[in-house]
């Protein structure tokens, strides 16, 4: 083959590339590159569970039906969302709003100048308790929160002839009784993709023994993990360790709920989303009790993880997105959201109605009695602690 | 006797191999309440096809279409480009062609994870971030090296006489490529097409790197999106996985014959 032939071949290949290149462009153009419609607020959502997805879609629909600004929601897997959030925020044309939670991670983004100051929206949220305000800073608008506790089946407790404990001694007694009946007293579910369930145990022991302020400082990196106070929490923990599910680190959260529902385990320290993992006919049979008081001198603290929205500082739709946030912060918006969700969450607006089930009302009371609210291990943790806290 | 032992061992391995697939199929036809109450591992106590309907309407249909829109042009484009490149590299004395081939091979040894951020930024600079074009470009780019390597190995094995005869008959390089080399490469092309189809259809990493809108997501991230933050409907996810597996299974069944012969021929040139 001489040089001329070679050149001709190259030219042919180049032409081929061009032809097929345009062909592929034409194909994909029909599916449409997603560009932001002018004026429409784009909401990037990690609420991929069916009930939560339906809820945010209902909220957006209600917002759009007001004939004001328009919004559209884009749901991606929570796992995808978590890993891609930095690239969303730093992209040239980021989504306007994001579902997320307050915490050290958000503060980190705020310090990098990636988040929009939404203090204006807070002007409309005068009724909100100070605690939410402190938690959110200038960049976050909370919409819902939920509670943690020891969940159990009422019918099983009745069958075993036991009642929910109040104090630590009663709790240990209860564990002993259940074990005597051949039931594993404490479920765990820290296996497969949910090692975070074990973090709740650490959180609770720490806020019961050392109190919420110390706990927050510890996770924020202002206290040391080898402090004798931290070591002290393992004394009560060791006491109940023999009552914990030996498969606790082997099975995941959802299997642990099944074990509880079937009565193989007695109780499970978990969040209110537990109700989403239960079959509908078991919902009325589910109840919870407070993590027992260990030291009565420590002010009562509870975990109450808060969820809501924040906005990108690069958004060209500042006015529109604030309109949406304002709507999401109203009692009306939150009632729409909760009505369309699985219902076991609490509205952050003090006057918004919750779903009204006995479980939810008890949950609301449960958090109201607490002097201090912590978020959760990963949410309260500093940047440096995130890899540990986010382990899945 | 040894025959019986062989069958027993092979049978056991086959059953073990098929067990996860059977588990997925069974989970797909159970109801969520059944799974929640009795656990994933229990025997099914319900039968419903609602999971399939759920998966299909919950973004499954659109995602399947997106997957097709990405996979078909990508397979076509990468094979067209790489067969042209392989033709040049295998049939012509191009200076430094060994280096070119080695470079392409070396590109395959690079773990894609280290390129995630650059690729994401690059698509943004090009203004194609969050479009299917971006995914097609990236998939073609990353597949090209391997396909070219396999095809040039295959084309090198073709007897020189065929090409010489064609030249004597007055065929130019393009004509030789189009009428002689390409038809003779068909087994390898079919095998690669089947492989490429599976790889691209099942890819998750690039899809979530260059896309962020659920409306353009192909089927793999859509499956992931069926998982909730805390609680997942395993029946819907299993049903979605079954649906998502159908196209690749069909392609493999269709190309099975070529697949085995094509790869073998490419391997021993």
TrEMBL record, chain B:
Protein name, as recorded: Carbohydrate ABC transporter permease
Keywords tagged on the record: Cell membrane, Membrane, Transmembrane, Transmembrane helix, Transport
Keyword Cell membrane annotated: yes
Organism, as annotated: Lentzea indica
Transmembrane segments: 68-89, 101-120, 126-150, 188-211, 231-253
Alphabetical list of CDD domains matching this protein: TM_PBP2
Family: Belongs to the binding-protein-dependent transport system permease family.
A Pfam family: BPD_transp_1
């Amino acid at each position: 083959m001489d040089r001329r032939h070679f050149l001709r071949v190259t030219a042919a290949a180049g032409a081929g590339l061009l032809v097929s290149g345009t062909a592929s462009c034409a194909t994909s153009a029909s599916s449409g590159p997603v560009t932001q419609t002018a004026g429409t607020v784009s909401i990037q959502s990690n609420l991929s569970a069916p009930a939560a997805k339906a809820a945010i879609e209902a909220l957006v629909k209600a917002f759009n039906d007001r004939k004001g600004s328009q919004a559209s929601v884009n749901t991606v897997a929570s796992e995808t969302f978590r890993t891609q959030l930095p690239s969303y925020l730093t992209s040239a044309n980021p989504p306007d709003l994001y579902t997320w939670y307050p915490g050290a991670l958000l503060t980190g983004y705020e310090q990098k100048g990636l988040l929009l100051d939404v203090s204006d929206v807070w002007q409309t949220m005068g009724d909100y308790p100070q605690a939410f305000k402190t938690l959110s800073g200038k960049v976050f608008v909370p919409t819902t929160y939920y509670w943690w506790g020891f969940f159990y089946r009422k019918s099983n407790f009745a069958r075993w002839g036991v009642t929910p404990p109040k104090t630590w001694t009663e709790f240990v007694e209860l564990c002993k009784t259940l074990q005597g009946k051949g039931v594993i007293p404490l479920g765990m579910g820290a296996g497969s993709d949910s090692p975070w369930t074990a973090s709740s145990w650490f959180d609770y022991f720490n806020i019961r023994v050392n109190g919420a302020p110390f706990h927050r400082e510890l996770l924020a990196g202002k206290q040391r993990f080898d402090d004798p106070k931290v070591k002290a929490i393992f004394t009560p923990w060791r006491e109940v360790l023999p009552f914990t599910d030996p498969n606790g680190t082997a099975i995941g959260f959802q299997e642990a709920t099944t074990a509880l529902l079937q009565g193989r385990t007695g109780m499970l320290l978990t969040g209110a989303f537990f109700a989403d993992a239960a079959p509908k006919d078991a919902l009325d049979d589910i109840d919870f009790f407070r993590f027992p008081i260990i030291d009565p001198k420590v002010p009562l603290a509870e975990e109450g993880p808060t969820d809501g929205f924040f906005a990108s500082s690069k958004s060209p739709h500042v006015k529109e997105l604030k309109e949406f946030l304002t709507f999401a912060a109203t009692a009306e918006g939150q009632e729409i959201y909760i009505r369309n969700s699985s219902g076991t969450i609490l509205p952050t607006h003090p006057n918004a109605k919750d779903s009204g089930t006995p479980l939810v009302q008890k949950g609301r009371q449960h958090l109201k009695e607490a002097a201090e609210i912590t978020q959760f291990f990963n949410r309260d943790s500093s940047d440096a602690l995130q890899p540990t806290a986010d382990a899945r | 006797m040894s025959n019986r032992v062989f069958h027993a061992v092979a049978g056991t391995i086959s059953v073990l191999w098929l067990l996860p697939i059977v588990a997925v199929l069974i989970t797909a036809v159970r109801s969520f309440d059944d799974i929640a109450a009795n656990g994933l591992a229990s025997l099914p106590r319900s039968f419903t096809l609602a999971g399939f309907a759920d998966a299909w309407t919950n973004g499954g249909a659109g995602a399947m279409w997106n997957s097709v829109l990405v996979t078909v042009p990508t397979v076509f484009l990468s094979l067209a480009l790489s067969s042209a490149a392989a033709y040049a590299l295998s049939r012509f004395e191009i200076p430094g062609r060994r280096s070119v081939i080695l470079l392409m091979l070396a590109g395959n040894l690079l773990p894609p994870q280290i390129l995630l951020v650059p690729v994401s930024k690059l698509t943004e600079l090009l203004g194609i971030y969050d479009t299917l074009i971006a995914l097609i470009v990236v998939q073609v780019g990353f597949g090209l090296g391997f396909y070219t390597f396999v095809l040039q190995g295959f084309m090198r094995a073709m007897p020189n006489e065929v090409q010489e005869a064609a030249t004597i008959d007055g065929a130019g390089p393009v004509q030789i490529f189009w009428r002689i080399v390409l038809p003779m490469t068909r087994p390898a092309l079919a095998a690669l097409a089947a492989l490429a189809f599976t790889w691209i259809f099942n890819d998750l990493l690039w899809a979530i790197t260059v896309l962020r809108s659920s409306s353009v997501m192909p089927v793999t991230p859509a499956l992931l999106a069926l998982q909730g933050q805390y609680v997942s409907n395993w029946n819907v996810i299993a049903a979605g996985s079954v649906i998502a597996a159908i196209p690749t299974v069909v392609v493999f069944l269709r190309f099975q014959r070529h697949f085995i012969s094509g790869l073998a021929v490419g391997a021993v040139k």
